[in-house]
Amino acid sequence: MKFFMVSSPKPQFPFTELVGTYLTHILNPCSGDFVFLPNPIRDLGDPVNVVVGFGFLPKRNVYKVVEIVYYRREIVRDDNDDLRSGVCVYTIGDDSWRCNNSSPYSLRGRDLSGACVNEALHWVSSGYDGPKLVDQIVGFDLENEVFGVIPHPDFDSGRLNYTLGVLQGCLSATRRKCQDYVEIWVMKDYGVKELWTKRLKIVCSEVGLIIGAVQPLFFQRNGELMLQHGGTLLCYNPLTKTLRELRISGMPRSFKAVVHVGSLVSP
After folding, report:
1. Which of 177, 182, 210, 252 has the fewest Cβ atoms within 10 Å of its own Cβ atom?
2. Under 8 Å CB-to-CB from 77, ≥6 apart: which residues?
């Protein structure tokens, strides 16, 4: 089962710009049922970034929402970290949020959900290890509510510039080289660095399209991979190395596609 999160006060853009707004509902798109969320507890001061995740613990049938809020420090520390953070967790069915932790990582992006695999949410984190800029995958264990580092793929070259997702039940990492190609990697055995595998590579010159940031969604029965590219849905055929646009009547210009398993049962 999958629920969608809706933010306020900008309902016309429910999947963007969480800074200064709050999540208001969790919605089951199949049944139409929804759950009101209490406002999270935030510190005084204006947030500079808000990262949110939504995940499921199947063994206990528990859904959790995680919010990480970053604020500007009044006094910069010796390690040049000018941000402070607060981490709040809400379990569907509880009366209020729990806010007991901070994040030791600077999580990238303002996406409305980190990739949920193996009962953990995942984001890319960027930070400095001394003078060196380091990218890493950070996971948040939904059961124990703690952060940890997940091994990343060893790309051929360049900075580890990628986005995370879920593909065929595995954690995926999509890396692009501007105007050149897109690589999609999957972690076939969770937590094992050696089992990161390059699933496919889409070369811009072969498909006749300059591809920007894409999000792989799922493989269709005919073997084509469906992707979201901005406000467009694309289908890539790995055998013929061709790319075609999937047109759906009535689709809005701005949207975020989410792969989910439909269910009429709500928590």
Report:
1. 252
2. none
For the stretch 215-233, pLDDT in tens is 999 999 999 999 998 888 9
Query: Is 43 among the domain residues?
Result: yes
Residue 244 counted as domain residue:
no
Residue length of the chain: 267
The answer to whether position 254 is within a domain reads: no
- Residue 14 pLDDT more than 50? no
CA distance 16 to 258: 14
Q: How far apart are CA 27 and CA 30, in angstroms?
A: 9
In a domain, 249, yes or no: no
Tokens, residue 259: 């792969």
Sheet holding 232-237, edge to edge: 215-219, 225-229, 232-237, 242-246
pLDDT, position 178:
78
Residue 84: burial class (beta carbons within 10 Å; 0-12, 13-18, 19+): middle
The token pair at 113 is 């959900």
